[in-house]
Amino acid sequence: MALRFIVTAGPTREYLDPVRFLSNPSTGRMGFAVARAARAAGHQVTLVTGPVALRTPRGVLRIDVVSAREMLAAVRRALAAERTSSALVMTAAVADWRPASCAARKLKKSGMDGTLRLVRNPDILRSLGSKAPGDIRIGFAAETGDPAAEAVRKCRAKHLDLIVANDVTQPGAGFGVKTNRVAFAFPDGRVDRLPLMSKDAVARRIVRFAEHLAEEGR
Ligand code: C5P
Prior knowledge:
Layout: E1 4-9, E2 14-17, E3 20-22, H1 29-40, E4 44-49, E5 61-64, H2 68-80, E6 87-90, E7 97-99, E8 118-120, H3 124-127, E9 136-143, H4 148-157, E10 162-167, E11 179-180, E12 182-185, E13 191-193, E14 197-198, H5 199-216
Parallel strand pairs: 1-4, 1-6, 4-5, 6-9, 9-10
Antiparallel strand pairs: 2-3, 7-8, 10-12, 11-14, 12-13
Helix pairs in contact: 1-5
The structure holds cytidine-5'-monophosphate (C5P).
């Protein structure tokens, strides 16, 4: 059964003026790998991505965004675009905070006092609320330290079917590398720790899990 995947990838950027922003080291590799794996398995894929230097996988509809608020709007539009249920995979490293204001012109060093007021960004997964029947939601969690307990908590709080957690301090895991060492955490408290594998292999497992849920009719 062909599914409709909406995958988010990369970092978001939160500008304080036209030349300065807050962001994080996400390269988008994990999200692009999920988009590629879903497409290769015959699914329809929309990829909502922050600023990254990666080629769009063939056959995937790509929507470029910059900030967390733009990503939220694009995800909402993609979810609303068709009536069929969807599998949302939130791989993006969304910035939790943004500068309270963004100046239209470059801020002058002399006019800055060394403090930056921040406001919370919306949490995209939380703001979507609970799922419609048939929808699948998968999140990611980058932690420093053993991610298992925190991952199960987030999985429940964000109404997810699965959270893919990794300790970004482990060699070969996390930002900017082609491999990942992840744990799959489920809302019932189960945690499967997977060995070090390529991001492509992690992506294939995620797609297979979504297919399995869809076949079960959940
Ligand atoms: O709570 P934490 O940021 O660790 O949760 C990570 C998950 O939540 C990821 O799937 C990420 O894409 C998503 N997220 C979000 N909106 C945010 C921050 C994170 O949807 N503002």
